[in-house]
Design a protein that fits this description.
mainly alpha
Length: about 100
């Protein structure tokens, strides 16, 4: 698919009498593409697969998730814990006076 600027260049150069082959060489695109757009009056059709808002919503959600993970990692690193332990690793039978929730 060519860009609108390239299409305009093709049309302008063709009106100036420059051959399809020279236009293709100048714009570094296929001669068949040049011929196609010279012979037809149609412009390239571009389709958006998703609205921009939904794309940006997905990107924003991903960025917020990564920032939160990074913040947690920085806090754990800054706390300088000797080892990483989880609540599930705690032995409640060893200290029965601590209530389980």
């Amino acid at each position: 698919m060519i860009k609108i600027g390239e299409l305009m260049s093709i049309k302008t150069l063709h009106k100036q009498g420059i051959s399809d082959r020279q236009i293709a060489k100048l714009l570094r695109i296929s001669r068949n593409t040049v011929t196609k757009y010279i012979e037809t009056d149609e412009s390239p059709q571009y389709h958006r697969t998703e609205p921009y808002r939904s794309i940006l919503d997905g990107l924003l959600g991903e960025e917020v998730r990564r920032r939160d993970e990074g913040a947690l990692d920085r806090k754990l690193k800054g706390a300088s814990f000797p080892t990483m332990k989880m609540l599930g690793d705690f032995d409640f039978n060893f200290q029965p006076w601590i209530a389980r929730w």
